[in-house]
Each structure stands twice: as structure tokens, then as C-alpha cells.
Specification:
alpha+beta, 6-stranded antiparallel β-sheet, 14 helices
């Protein structure tokens, strides 16, 4: 990959396995939306970014050399060789088809607290409604990102100081309690998300599940998308159906995809959705 720093963007030439539509529409992040030019625009870590692609050239508008090196290189997991990952995961006919179908999906390395709150909100919810709640949360309690119309994700101390009444306009329902509980635990230091990035996946999930309203699926999503534990394999009702359809054997375990369980999960989920639509 060749990196060049232009006046208003960073240009990445020769990028393999990068498809912005598949990255931003596979259910792992909720703050990027399509633009009229076919790209995607959104905000992460308090910085606004517009992503476009022409073949194997990706342009990151709004990124500088500093922000690319500090934020975006890690955010898009650009150090990882996804061709090698896809090859390693092609262990059977299903996965060979899934890795081909999901070509270009990358696991975004998101802010841990944003991932925690976003996936708490995602419980028993659909993506348009999740996006609506998250956007209201940011516009009400986040900080404006200049004059872009975007807002940063509010930090833990900000949310921890709120009441259920103040969260009511979000229309998050029963999730209000869980949002406040998580924010207060992180703000107080009881839950140390940075430490959970450094510990084992099993330890991270165990600690996350101590939070009210965080079950196995949410804990795995936070571990995967917020803490960088790439072996996490989130299973919800949809994933159970997918596994039953393609791996309906009593001895199946996600460990067959180790150490890339989370990437395998995304490939399978995307593959199953495409088959359902075709």
C-alpha cells in the first residue's frame, strides 16, 4: 500500500480488501452513512471523515497525516493482511464462498466506550433505529465537530452525570438504565476499558458481563469492535440461524475459526444476508 498526503485528504493506493459499503453496512458501526458520490461520511474519535474508493485507491477526505497515523490507520485495521486472513478462514465450502462474498470487509477498531454504549443500544433493535438513538445521543450530549453538523460521541463522565429523565428524548426505552449503569461504571474506574483491551478475550468478556444489561452477545460485540479481541464471535438469534443452516452439527464450535473468529462471523453474516436477498 502506498500512502500519500494530499492537501485535503490522505490517498491510499494499492489497498487490498477494502470495500467501504461492506465495511460500514455490516452492522459493526452506526455513525457512517452513504453520500451521493457513492462514498461514506461519518465521525469517529471526534473526527469527521469522508471515504471514497476507485478500484484499489481509497481517499480519506478530512484526514491529515497526523490524524491518519493517530486514528485512521488503526481504525481501518490497515496493518492486517486480510488476504491472508481470508485464505486461513477458507476451511470449507461455506467459508470459501463467504470470504469471496464478503471481500473488502474489515473489522473497525472503534472507541471502546462508544462501542459499549452503541451495542447496549443495539439490543432487540434494528439498524435504522439504533442509528437514530445514537445520533440523538451525540447531538444532545456530544461536542460539535466544527461546523460540519457532526458531533463527537459523549464521554463516560458526561453520560454518567445524566438522569433517566434527561435520556428520555433518545427514545431508547429500557436501555436508558443500562446506558447510565455502563457510563457510571466506566467514569468511576470500576470498569477499565483500556485495561480490557490488554487482557485476554475471556477476561474482557467476563468483566463486561458484570455490567447491567450486558449479556454474551453485547459483550462479544464490544470485545470485537471496541477492544480489538479479534477472536470474539458474537452470536445472536440471526447468527444462530446462520450456524444452524451451514454448520448444523452437534460438535460445531466457533473455535474452528480461531484466531479470526470475529472476521469469520462478519463474513458469514454478510454472506447469509446476501443469499437471503438473492
Amino acid at each position: 500500500m502506498e500512502i500519500s498526503y494530499e492537501k485535503d485528504h490522505v490517498c491510499l493506493k494499492g489497498v487490498k480488501q477494502f470495500d467501504e459499503k461492506r465495511i460500514f453496512e455490516c452492522g459493526q458501526a452506526f455513525r457512517f452513512d452513504p453520500c451521493d458520490d457513492g462514498g461514506y461520511m461519518g465521525v469517529a474519535f471526534g473526527s469527521v471523515l469522508r471515504v471514497t474508493r476507485d478500484g484499489d485507491t481509497v481517499r480519506l477526505y478530512g484526514a491529515t497525516q497526523e490524524s491518519f497515523e493517530k486514528i485512521w490507520f488503526d481504525y481501518f485495521d490497515l496493518e492486517r493482511d486480510y488476504d491472508s486472513v481470508a485464505s486461513a478462514l477458507s476451511i470449507d465450502d461455506t467459508m470459501r464462498k463467504a470470504t469471496k462474498c464478503g471481500y473488502g470487509i474489515r473489522i473497525l477498531r472503534q472507541d471502546p466506550f462508544e462501542a459499549l454504549i452503541s451495542f447496549i443500544i443495539s439490543q432487540n433493535n434494528n439498524i435504522p433505529r439504533i442509528k437514530g438513538i445514537v445520533n440523538r445521543l451525540c447531538s444532545m450530549f456530544g461536542t460539535p465537530c466544527g461546523d460540519t453538523g457532526f458531533y463527537s460521541f459523549p464521554d463516560a463522565p458526561t453520560l454518567a452525570a445524566l438522569s433517566k429523565e434527561q435520556l428520555a428524548p433518545l427514545r431508547a426505552g429500557f436501555r436508558d438504565d443500562y446506558i447510565l449503569c455502563a457510563a457510571r461504571s466506566v467514569a468511576s474506574g470500576e470498569t477499565d476499558l483500556q485495561a480490557l483491551k490488554k487482557c485476554s478475550y475471556e477476561q474482557a468478556v467476563t468483566e463486561l458481563k458484570k455490567l447491567r444489561g450486558v449479556g454474551p452477545k453485547v459483550a462479544d460485540c464490544v470485545a470485537l469492535f471496541g477492544l480489538g479481541h479479534i477472536e470474539a464471535f458474537p452470536i445472536d438469534v440471526w447468527m444462530k440461524r446462520i450456524l444452524q443452516q451451514y454448520y448444523n452439527t452437534p460438535d460445531f464450535t466457533p473455535e474452528i475459526f480461531a484466531p479470526y473468529g470475529g472476521i469469520a462471523q462478519q463474513y458469514l453474516f454478510y454472506f447469509a444476508r446476501q443469499n437471503a436477498l438473492n
